[in-house]
Design goal:
510 residues; alpha/beta; Rossmann fold; Dihydrodipicolinate Reductase, domain 2; 2 domains; 9-stranded mixed beta sheet; 6-stranded parallel beta sheet; 19 strands; 21% strand; disordered N terminus; binds 6-O-phosphono-beta-D-glucopyranose
């Protein structure tokens, strides 16, 4: 039997009111990599934890020819391979029993009539709340949205049901294409129905940024230009383009990581307290941050951005090829696999505080962290003592993989003289909380199922992020010649070190 709503988990004795109505989850692109790696395991774990209603049906749609049985076996294999938990066969069987598959070409309008017939056939018994998921190549988004609209599937057919659509990244390629895509979606969907996914917002440690800032009294008073010297955000990956060369070579690190994930991190770190923890209140504050970031002039792009490509090298003890030797990469590609830049936020809280961002593939290790460096004490009389170097206080929010928070401060070394050494106070998720945290996609799918869009990006947010990124792209487009390189397995090109050192800072080594 499928878990009943009443059996849903409790947290510290509180029953969370997050139980979806019966609904049908329609996955466009159900034969693809994202569905296998992320969506099926997330659905399995949501079912295992009792979050899914008994009447939750899944309909996979893709071009590939599958029968229902074959598709169900695909789901089983995907869950076995990618689930964070060792799968339980009874739960897995239930998930599969609730699943069907339809072969369809997303661009062929006629096939949406067949889809509609199946969805609305009383014999099939699909719940009439629809959650559509676009896990297809982005080129298919406009066609799917418009065909859903013209077949009357984009709006509830009565006042009692709901229809929502989750749109995967990349959401556009630049500002114009993002605006155009928003336009396509809005022709058929209302903004309140659209859930633009950024999986970073589903990460526990990313959500904890808001809790850390706004559920504690002691940090917020320090969270200003008066006390903070600089902020560094690093998203380092040891992986290369990992079989996604044709997509990545068109995108590059700026579009792939900065426009979405990293600017989301910036907005959570820099936003003002929202009036409530509600979707629009939170997103209103985030969008204000994005709009306050100073756009890049051509000169700023030259001075305060660095892009680079990896050459062959050694990562985690393994020899790896250079970017240009990866499959599906153009031999003369100038696409960046690394980007570093300095942002300035022109508002009262942050005026003059540099935010340094860097992300890259084939760096020495996987590490995402936000490091907030505080100004030094105003009068440093311990310098007269036997203290070689007193590092400034540093608060590091470790997003992954060693999830936690650490605070660096100076402490007296025991002994008869005054000698100061920096030490760390550490909080580690793994030791303070039990169990494996849910995957980002579990959280985000559940949110979309219950109609909570707080952790999804709104139209104005995505466009503000693209406006900023487009100002950088324009500067890069004007610059000719080769781009810098770095050896795989190093922390990036020396140009990035030179950039930050001009401001008297250095990159951290996570
Ligand atoms: C994706 C990018 O959005 O995020 C990938 O397209 C990148 O290139 C990935 O590897 C990183 O996500 P995570 O969760 O592993 O940090």
């Amino acid at each position: 039997m499928i878990n009943a709503i009443a059996e849903a988990p409790t947290r510290d004795g509180l029953i969370e009111r997050r139980h979806p109505d019966p609904f049908t989850f329609v996955i466009f692109g159900a034969a693809g990599d994202l569905a296998h790696r992320k969506l099926f395991p997330a659905l399995y774990n949501l079912m295992f934890d009792g979050w899914l209603p008994a009447e939750c049906r899944i309909l996979g749609v893709a071009r590939r020819q599958y029968g229902d049985a074959e598709f169900r076996e695909e789901i089983r294999a995907a869950v076995m391979r990618y689930s964070r938990r060792q799968p339980d066969s009874e739960v897995l069987d239930r998930l599969m029993a609730n699943t069907m598959y339809v072969t369809a070409d997303f661009n062929d309008g006629a096939q949406y009539q067949a889809l509609k017939t199946i969805l609305q056939d009383p014999e099939q018994g699909f719940p009439q709340n629809y959650l559509f998921y676009l896990a297809t190549p982005p080129s298919a988004y406009p066609a799917i949205a418009s065909h859903l609209g013209s077949h009357g599937l984009a709006r509830p057919f009565d006042g009692k049901h709901w229809v929502r659509i989750i749109v995967e990244k990349p959401f556009g390629h630049d500002l114009d294409s993002a605006v155009a895509l928003n336009g396509h979606l809005h022709q058929v969907f209302d903004e309140s129905q659209i859930y633009r996914i950024d999986h970073y917002l589903g990460k526990e440690t990313v959500q904890n940024i808001l809790v850390f800032r706004f559920a504690n009294g002691i940090f917020e008073p320090l969270w200003t230009r008066q006390y903070i010297d600089q902020v560094q955000i690093t998203v380092a990956e040891s992986l290369g383009v990992a079989g996604r060369g044709s997509y990545y070579d068109q995108a590059g690190a700026l579009r792939d990581m900065v426009q979405n994930h990293m600017l989301q991190l910036v907005s959570l770190i820099a936003m003002e307290p929202p009036v409530a923890f509600e979707a629009d209140a939170v997103r209103d504050e985030k969008v204000k941050v994005l709009r306050s970031i100073r756009p890049f002039t051509t000169r700023d792009v030259a001075d305060w951005t660095v892009r680079a490509q990896y050459e062959g090298g050694t990562v985690e003890g393994e020899p790896v090829p250079g970017y240009l030797d990866e499959p599906d990469i153009a031999s003369d590609s100038r696409t960046e696999s690394y980007v570093a830049l300095r942002l300035l936020i022109d508002n009262w809280r942050w005026a003059g505080v540099p935010f340094y961002l860097r992300t890259g593939k084939r760096l020495p290790k996987r590490a995402t962290e936000i490091a907030i460096q505080f100004k030094t004490a105003p009068h440093r009389f311990f310098l007269q003592t036997d203290t070689p170097e007193l590092a400034p206080n540093l608060l590091t929010l470790k997003i992954q993989p060693d999830e936690g928070i650490s605070l660096r401060f100076g402490a007296k070394v025991p002994g008869p003289a005054i000698k100061v050494r920096t030490v760390n106070m550490e909080f580690l998720y793994g030791t303070s909380f039990d169990g494996t945290p849910p995957e980002a996609y579990e959280r985000l799918l559940l949110d979309a199922m219950v109609g909570d869009s707080t952790l999804f990006t709104r139209k104005d947010e995505v466009e503000a992020a693209w406006a900023l990124v487009s100002s950088i792209l324009r500067g890069w487009w004007r610059a000719r010649g080769p781009i810098p390189t770095y050896d795989a397995g190093t922390w990036g090109p020396e140009e990035a070190d030179a950039m930050i050192e001009r401001n008297g800072f250095r990159w951290r080594k996570p």
